[in-house]
Amino acid sequence: MKCVFITGITKFTQISMFGMLNTLVNISFSNEYATICGFTKDEVMCNFSEPLLRMADCFAVMPNELMDTMSSFYDGYHFSRSLIGVYNPFSVCNALANLRLNSYWIASGSNEMLLKVLRKFINEIPELDNCLIDSDYLEMSDVNMNDPKLFLYQSGYLTIKKVVGSSYMLGYPNREVQNAMLGMSLPNG
Length: 189
What we know:
With about 190 residues, the chain is mainly alpha-helical. About 40% of the residues lie in helices and about 10% in strands. It has a 3-stranded antiparallel β-sheet with strand order 1-3-2. Strand 2 (about 160-165) and strand 3 form a beta hairpin. The longest helix is centred in the middle third of the chain and has 12 residues, at about 65-75. The mean pLDDT is about 85.
């Protein structure tokens, strides 16, 4: 085997099945690969120009206005210090296919584990948007159910918003995620 690409919300370096693989490279925070898990604005505009035009016609707006709206819904993920933003590809593809803005990514999976974490840290939820976390801690830690910032970053509900010295400021990447988080944190949510 020459190359294996593994994705998920946990780092596998501590798992025994990889004991013999001493060449794993974690590219999670590499500037070179910062856009590998999403679409940049240019990629959306170039590769989806026809569906964008159809959707803009449905909304009776210009394509650049539609991109601004789509940006607030689906853009905002940052995976390195370069802060190159990427759009959620699942939600973008579904929005363009359905000609409708909706919370596609949020609706696609089970929120059972997320709800468990949110219940445990219900009082911290309002403070998660624009919270600071040590960059080494975020980059080196495995998934941790005892730290809501770490878990929510690794699962896509928080993203890097800004680099502040040796820390990252985390926050909700976009309206899709923010609305879901606030909805789940409300009583009966």
